[in-house]
Amino acid sequence: MADRRDESVVDTVRKVEAIFKDRLDQAFTAINADLLKLDDEVDRDQVIQALVVALFRAETRR
């Protein structure tokens, strides 16, 4: 049962990635310079994760 649930999560993640790939590419390009300027103290992964969440929320509000 857990394997089916894991497969479902992976499938969902892949679908989300496919839907947002173009938007993510555009967003990463737009903010890449800003990410490079961040201090080492800032966790870049957190910034990227927040961006993905913001894009998802924006898309679901449409």
Automatic annotation (TrEMBL):
Official protein name in the record: Uncharacterized protein
Superkingdom: Bacteria
Species annotation: Phreatobacter stygius
